[in-house]
Amino acid sequence: MITIAPDRIKNWIFVTGIIRSGTTFVGTILSLPLEVDYIHEPFNPQCGLPGMNRWYPYIRASLDTPEMQQFHELTKTIFSYEFTLRNKIPQTDPWSKRIIKQAIGSRGPFYLRFAKLNPFHTTAIIKDPIGNLLTEYLDLQFGVKPVIIVKHPLSFIASLKRVNWWPHLGEINDQPHLIEDYFSDDFDFIQKEFSDPVLAAAAYWRATYKVLFAQASKYQNWQLITHEELSKNPIYTFKNLYEKLNLPWSKSVENKIIKLTQGNQSAEARKGQVQDFNRNSADIFKVRRQSLAPEEKKAIFEITEDVALQIYSRESFDLD
Question: How far is CA 30 from CA 14, 114, 320, in A?
């Protein structure tokens, strides 16, 4: 395969956030222009770079240990396009879908093939919620422009319920440098075990965004976007993002956003769809919040309160 040298790519953008927060949708919309490449989840152990084997890694930009240096050498291959991505073919996929992925590749390898051959590229979008704790490292070492998607804790939990995915603190709390840098005064919380998956996921939300909000407060060029504002005002929000990220806005981009966010009367995802872009986005938060019981809302608020209230109002939790 002939690879177009990526030295023309001067604009690297990192789209991240917590899982189920809309990072795939945002990465897809930002990569609509022909000159923008899309790189799908290179830090994901299931579908990312061979050698990326831990979930939610935290790396200091100072690269303090040999392990961090080794991670850095692997990460550098992304920015030279000298890398491959794992071909993810879940056994739960229908047989027809598995055959297609075997033939042309799953999402990561498929889009990477186009990126390497794109003669027009000047920008690359790296989309990866699994790499959310790498944001500051990627900014300081590689000059990426971070776009952090924030999803309301209630909407996040309701979305997890729909797909039965349940993250927890155990996926991130075995990293000593992370604990030292962000949880030295919060050690009891980060080591706490929750038997209820709803509470465990709320604790994971709090821990992840505690780190991301603390980092974002130090850098004026980081873009912090809520899933709710994206859903309520998609054209305005994306047009503003395009401008800040030096991406070429066009009528075709605007029409695509309108089609995806207003093309379906329902705010709920279609049955069997883990990700469904084509729905009425303005009502998503309302539908999600209404799906939770009052006692669940109260418990989620109590766990996430100190971090969530940096972005959201108490009224948004619908406690009364």
Answer: 11, 16, 38
